[in-house]
Write a structure and sequence with these properties.
Order of helices and strands: HEHHEHHEHEHEHEHHHH
Structural class: alpha/beta
Strand order of the largest sheet: 2-1-6-5-3-4
Radius of gyration: 18 Å
Helix content: 40-55%
Number of strands: 6
Length: 237
Protein backbone atom coordinates (compact mmCIF):
# COMPACT_ATOMS: atom_id res chain seq x y z
CA UNK A 1 0.00 0.00 0.00
CA UNK A 2 2.75 2.46 0.93
CA UNK A 3 4.49 1.82 -2.39
CA UNK A 4 1.28 2.26 -4.40
CA UNK A 5 0.49 5.55 -2.64
CA UNK A 6 4.06 6.81 -3.05
CA UNK A 7 4.15 6.01 -6.77
CA UNK A 8 0.77 7.67 -7.30
CA UNK A 9 1.95 10.73 -5.40
CA UNK A 10 5.08 10.88 -7.57
CA UNK A 11 3.04 10.66 -10.79
CA UNK A 12 0.76 13.49 -9.67
CA UNK A 13 3.71 15.63 -8.59
CA UNK A 14 5.38 15.17 -11.99
CA UNK A 15 2.19 16.08 -13.82
CA UNK A 16 2.17 12.78 -15.72
CA UNK A 17 -0.97 10.79 -16.52
CA UNK A 18 -2.03 7.16 -16.27
CA UNK A 19 -4.54 4.75 -14.80
CA UNK A 20 -4.49 2.21 -11.99
CA UNK A 21 -6.21 -1.18 -12.16
CA UNK A 22 -7.05 -2.56 -8.72
CA UNK A 23 -7.12 -6.17 -9.83
CA UNK A 24 -8.24 -9.40 -8.18
CA UNK A 25 -9.13 -12.89 -9.34
CA UNK A 26 -12.03 -11.62 -11.47
CA UNK A 27 -9.80 -9.32 -13.52
CA UNK A 28 -7.08 -11.92 -13.94
CA UNK A 29 -9.52 -14.53 -15.23
CA UNK A 30 -11.16 -12.02 -17.59
CA UNK A 31 -7.70 -11.35 -19.02
CA UNK A 32 -7.14 -15.05 -19.82
CA UNK A 33 -9.88 -15.08 -22.46
CA UNK A 34 -9.76 -11.45 -23.58
CA UNK A 35 -6.46 -10.34 -25.09
CA UNK A 36 -7.59 -6.71 -25.37
CA UNK A 37 -8.42 -6.64 -21.67
CA UNK A 38 -5.08 -8.26 -20.80
CA UNK A 39 -3.36 -5.47 -22.75
CA UNK A 40 -5.31 -2.87 -20.75
CA UNK A 41 -4.02 -4.35 -17.48
CA UNK A 42 -0.45 -4.62 -18.76
CA UNK A 43 -0.40 -1.01 -19.97
CA UNK A 44 -1.65 0.46 -16.71
CA UNK A 45 0.51 2.73 -14.59
CA UNK A 46 -0.07 0.26 -11.76
CA UNK A 47 -2.01 -2.98 -11.40
CA UNK A 48 -2.39 -3.70 -7.71
CA UNK A 49 -3.29 -6.96 -5.87
CA UNK A 50 -6.86 -6.33 -4.75
CA UNK A 51 -7.48 -9.73 -3.13
CA UNK A 52 -5.58 -12.03 -0.80
CA UNK A 53 -5.35 -14.89 -3.37
CA UNK A 54 -3.30 -12.60 -5.63
CA UNK A 55 -1.04 -11.75 -2.69
CA UNK A 56 -0.53 -15.41 -1.80
CA UNK A 57 0.28 -16.22 -5.42
CA UNK A 58 2.82 -13.39 -5.41
CA UNK A 59 4.45 -14.88 -2.31
CA UNK A 60 4.67 -18.28 -3.99
CA UNK A 61 6.49 -16.62 -6.89
CA UNK A 62 9.06 -15.13 -4.52
CA UNK A 63 7.62 -11.65 -3.88
CA UNK A 64 7.61 -12.00 -0.09
CA UNK A 65 7.00 -8.31 0.63
CA UNK A 66 3.83 -8.19 -1.49
CA UNK A 67 0.76 -7.04 0.45
CA UNK A 68 -2.83 -6.35 -0.47
CA UNK A 69 -3.75 -3.02 -2.08
CA UNK A 70 -7.51 -3.13 -1.57
CA UNK A 71 -9.45 -0.54 -3.59
CA UNK A 72 -11.42 1.13 -0.77
CA UNK A 73 -8.33 1.28 1.46
CA UNK A 74 -6.23 2.73 -1.35
CA UNK A 75 -8.89 5.38 -1.91
CA UNK A 76 -8.85 6.32 1.77
CA UNK A 77 -5.06 6.50 1.85
CA UNK A 78 -4.98 8.77 -1.19
CA UNK A 79 -7.68 11.01 0.30
CA UNK A 80 -5.69 11.31 3.52
CA UNK A 81 -2.56 12.27 1.57
CA UNK A 82 -4.54 14.72 -0.55
CA UNK A 83 -5.47 16.88 2.44
CA UNK A 84 -1.75 17.64 2.78
CA UNK A 85 -0.96 17.80 -0.96
CA UNK A 86 -4.10 19.60 -2.12
CA UNK A 87 -4.98 17.02 -4.77
CA UNK A 88 -8.47 17.42 -6.21
CA UNK A 89 -10.82 14.45 -6.66
CA UNK A 90 -13.68 13.64 -9.05
CA UNK A 91 -16.09 10.73 -8.46
CA UNK A 92 -17.31 8.93 -11.61
CA UNK A 93 -19.73 6.02 -11.28
CA UNK A 94 -22.23 4.41 -8.97
CA UNK A 95 -25.99 4.42 -9.01
CA UNK A 96 -27.77 7.80 -8.90
CA UNK A 97 -26.97 9.55 -5.64
CA UNK A 98 -24.15 7.23 -4.53
CA UNK A 99 -21.30 9.52 -5.59
CA UNK A 100 -22.86 12.41 -3.67
CA UNK A 101 -23.20 10.22 -0.57
CA UNK A 102 -19.58 9.15 -0.95
CA UNK A 103 -18.45 12.76 -1.27
CA UNK A 104 -20.24 13.61 1.99
CA UNK A 105 -18.64 10.65 3.79
CA UNK A 106 -15.10 11.30 2.54
CA UNK A 107 -15.18 15.01 3.35
CA UNK A 108 -16.51 14.12 6.80
CA UNK A 109 -13.60 11.75 7.38
CA UNK A 110 -10.98 14.08 5.92
CA UNK A 111 -11.76 17.75 6.58
CA UNK A 112 -10.13 19.90 3.92
CA UNK A 113 -10.40 17.24 1.21
CA UNK A 114 -11.30 18.67 -2.20
CA UNK A 115 -13.91 16.57 -4.00
CA UNK A 116 -14.66 18.86 -6.89
CA UNK A 117 -17.25 16.96 -8.89
CA UNK A 118 -19.36 13.84 -9.40
CA UNK A 119 -20.81 12.16 -12.48
CA UNK A 120 -23.24 9.25 -12.69
CA UNK A 121 -22.77 7.67 -16.15
CA UNK A 122 -25.38 5.69 -18.08
CA UNK A 123 -25.17 1.88 -18.37
CA UNK A 124 -23.65 2.17 -21.84
CA UNK A 125 -20.72 3.97 -23.48
CA UNK A 126 -20.87 7.76 -23.34
CA UNK A 127 -22.21 9.47 -26.42
CA UNK A 128 -20.47 12.53 -27.86
CA UNK A 129 -22.57 15.00 -25.89
CA UNK A 130 -22.04 13.17 -22.58
CA UNK A 131 -18.32 12.84 -23.24
CA UNK A 132 -18.06 16.58 -23.85
CA UNK A 133 -20.06 17.28 -20.69
CA UNK A 134 -17.68 15.14 -18.63
CA UNK A 135 -14.64 16.79 -20.21
CA UNK A 136 -16.04 20.25 -19.46
CA UNK A 137 -16.73 19.35 -15.84
CA UNK A 138 -13.19 18.02 -15.40
CA UNK A 139 -11.67 21.11 -17.01
CA UNK A 140 -13.72 23.46 -14.84
CA UNK A 141 -13.03 21.53 -11.65
CA UNK A 142 -9.27 21.13 -12.29
CA UNK A 143 -9.48 17.59 -10.93
CA UNK A 144 -6.27 15.61 -10.42
CA UNK A 145 -7.73 12.16 -9.71
CA UNK A 146 -10.80 10.55 -11.27
CA UNK A 147 -12.13 7.64 -9.21
CA UNK A 148 -13.97 5.21 -11.45
CA UNK A 149 -16.63 3.27 -9.54
CA UNK A 150 -17.78 0.84 -12.21
CA UNK A 151 -17.42 -2.94 -12.27
CA UNK A 152 -14.62 -4.97 -13.84
CA UNK A 153 -13.98 -5.03 -16.79
CA UNK A 154 -16.13 -1.98 -17.60
CA UNK A 155 -14.09 0.45 -15.50
CA UNK A 156 -10.76 -0.71 -16.92
CA UNK A 157 -12.04 -0.35 -20.48
CA UNK A 158 -13.26 3.15 -19.69
CA UNK A 159 -9.94 4.24 -18.19
CA UNK A 160 -7.89 2.82 -21.06
CA UNK A 161 -10.15 4.45 -23.64
CA UNK A 162 -10.00 7.89 -22.01
CA UNK A 163 -6.46 7.92 -20.58
CA UNK A 164 -4.77 10.98 -22.08
CA UNK A 165 -8.06 12.18 -23.58
CA UNK A 166 -9.63 13.62 -20.43
CA UNK A 167 -8.04 16.54 -18.55
CA UNK A 168 -7.14 14.54 -15.44
CA UNK A 169 -3.79 13.14 -14.32
CA UNK A 170 -4.73 9.85 -12.70
CA UNK A 171 -7.70 7.51 -13.06
CA UNK A 172 -8.27 4.70 -10.57
CA UNK A 173 -10.81 1.87 -10.94
CA UNK A 174 -12.12 0.95 -7.49
CA UNK A 175 -15.29 -1.01 -8.29
CA UNK A 176 -17.50 -1.49 -5.24
CA UNK A 177 -15.62 1.12 -3.17
CA UNK A 178 -18.33 3.69 -3.90
CA UNK A 179 -21.01 1.49 -2.31
CA UNK A 180 -18.77 0.24 0.51
CA UNK A 181 -17.39 3.58 1.66
CA UNK A 182 -20.73 5.39 1.34
CA UNK A 183 -22.32 2.77 3.59
CA UNK A 184 -24.63 1.32 0.94
CA UNK A 185 -22.95 -2.09 0.97
CA UNK A 186 -21.84 -3.96 4.08
CA UNK A 187 -18.13 -4.66 4.41
CA UNK A 188 -16.85 -8.15 5.23
CA UNK A 189 -15.36 -8.74 8.71
CA UNK A 190 -11.61 -8.28 8.92
CA UNK A 191 -11.01 -11.99 9.60
CA UNK A 192 -12.72 -12.89 6.33
CA UNK A 193 -10.59 -10.35 4.46
CA UNK A 194 -7.38 -11.75 5.96
CA UNK A 195 -8.47 -15.31 5.21
CA UNK A 196 -9.25 -14.63 1.57
CA UNK A 197 -12.97 -15.22 2.16
CA UNK A 198 -14.27 -11.77 1.29
CA UNK A 199 -15.62 -13.23 -1.96
CA UNK A 200 -17.82 -15.61 0.07
CA UNK A 201 -19.24 -12.75 2.11
CA UNK A 202 -20.09 -10.79 -1.03
CA UNK A 203 -21.58 -13.89 -2.68
CA UNK A 204 -23.90 -14.39 0.31
CA UNK A 205 -24.94 -10.73 0.15
CA UNK A 206 -25.44 -10.59 -3.64
CA UNK A 207 -25.92 -14.18 -4.91
CA UNK A 208 -27.87 -13.37 -8.07
CA UNK A 209 -25.33 -10.85 -9.32
CA UNK A 210 -22.09 -12.52 -8.24
CA UNK A 211 -22.61 -16.30 -8.36
CA UNK A 212 -21.20 -16.67 -11.86
CA UNK A 213 -18.17 -14.50 -11.10
CA UNK A 214 -17.10 -16.42 -8.00
CA UNK A 215 -18.29 -19.99 -8.58
CA UNK A 216 -16.82 -20.14 -12.08
CA UNK A 217 -13.81 -17.84 -11.83
CA UNK A 218 -12.39 -18.99 -8.49
CA UNK A 219 -11.91 -22.68 -9.44
CA UNK A 220 -10.40 -21.64 -12.76
CA UNK A 221 -7.97 -19.30 -10.98
CA UNK A 222 -6.86 -22.13 -8.67
CA UNK A 223 -6.39 -24.50 -11.61
CA UNK A 224 -4.43 -22.03 -13.73
CA UNK A 225 -2.29 -21.08 -10.72
CA UNK A 226 -1.45 -24.76 -10.22
CA UNK A 227 -0.47 -25.10 -13.86
CA UNK A 228 1.77 -22.05 -13.64
CA UNK A 229 3.42 -23.00 -10.35
CA UNK A 230 4.03 -26.56 -11.50
CA UNK A 231 5.47 -25.22 -14.79
CA UNK A 232 3.01 -27.35 -16.75
CA UNK A 233 1.92 -24.23 -18.61
CA UNK A 234 3.53 -20.90 -19.40
CA UNK A 235 1.43 -17.75 -19.72
CA UNK A 236 2.25 -14.99 -22.17
CA UNK A 237 2.08 -11.33 -21.29
Amino acid sequence: MDNAVAQSDALLSRGDSGYICVTGVHGIIEAQSDEAFRTILNRSFLSTPDGMPTVWLGHLHGFKDMTRVYGPDFMLNMCKLSVERGYRHFLYGGRPGIAEELRAELTRRYPGLHIVGTYTPPFRPLNAEEEQDLRTQLEDSKADILWCGLSTPKQERFMAAYSGRLPVKLMVGVGAAFDLLSGNLAEAPDWMKRSGLQWLYRLIKEPKRLWRRYLLNNPRFVWLSFLQLSRLRRFSF
